[in-house]
Amino acid sequence: MPENRAPTVSRLRNVTPKFSDQELFSLAEKFGTPYFLIDEAALRKNVSELEQAYQNFKGHFRVAYSIKANHNPSVIKTFVSEGIMFDLTASNELYFLLKCGGSAESVIYTSITETMAEYEHIMKLGVRKIVVSSYNGLVNLIEARERVGGDVEVLIRVNPEVSVKAELRFSIKHGKFGVPLDSADEDSALSLLRKILSTPGLRFEGFHFHLGSQIEDPSCFGVALEKLESFILGARRELGNFPIRTIDMGGGLPAPYGKTVPSVADFSSQVLEQLNSISENLGEKFTLIVESGRFLSAESTILVSRVVNVKRFDETRYVYVDAGYHNLLDSALLRHEYPVEVIPGGTSSPRKTVLSGRLCDALDIFPTSSRSKLGGAEVGKLVVFRDVGAYSFVLGSQFHCQPKPYILMRNAQGNHIVVRKGQDLEELFTEEGGDLINHKAKRSALPGQPT
Q: Per the confidence metrics, is the pTM higher than 0.85?
């Protein structure tokens, strides 16, 4: 059993990117509020930090970006230019990646539904590295490969069933994701492995696991890797000396959201020695993949809103902004305490401050932390939400007929560019089918036309 060391919390990672007050007000005047602002340099910095953390791994190391966290084309194109891999779970994501100049060869595809039609579609587009997590899914993949032709590199998604201290835990017993390591059922790692090794056209690639999101203690990865190594050695005794070409450790790297969290180096220090030992014990210089969506994208982006009202009750003050949880859904779903700051001159508030969104819903209250700087909030000032680059506008809605806000990017040259145009009300009305209703009404009003 690997040593269960307490995680090191090396530093707070929410100090970048930095934007000047003048910059934020100027963009607010030009594009209105709320708006999102992405910093390209921060995206690239996080890729570099992740690669450096695993530079002492003795095999080949690859970063994979989970597009589900943020599928804005500007973000995808930035990561394409970094030469990293992409973790996809839907064929629609593949469409976005290919349109942004990415290649199917850079994809590791992990479906949840695992239908034959889905596999056939993505293989025709060139995807050949596919993760399976059910026996039925594997059967569908085999049939799809027979229709399309060519070889497929297959990984098995396993559920190590280890204890995980995290905001969201995916490694629970009998969970939704993956197959168990210690079962004799049809939906088990050994059953899938046996089928893959005996099927022409399938090349067994390795194993994938994903333990959770916002993991607070990196030691769970060591436990999972020990279980996986034990399984591989046992399976080799039964099935022969099959190769291990890839181990994909999934994601879980935490974004700070205004608090101290383990760094990427803290994670790698927990497992690098063990990974190199596994490589030596198995006699394989395998490729190590670390996936990340939240870590790579969260800190790159801010949401800029404007204070539109302030209300006071005794020692409590309500600050209302023109954003809402339709812009930051995880503030309601997961109670994320996004770092927030009044611009200009935000300070720690001397009284209890409630930060309220503009929606007619009691859930539209933004959680705040001790690091929030809401002192000095007045109508007309800006409130900046930091670390919002993951699962924000991709989960956005148009509740209360709210049009999609602008998304801007500060590129590597320091210029501000529009990467998603903001909607106006007429565009939202049309998107929701308003023109179809109007067209039908006009047709019905014409003499002699059927109603």
A: yes
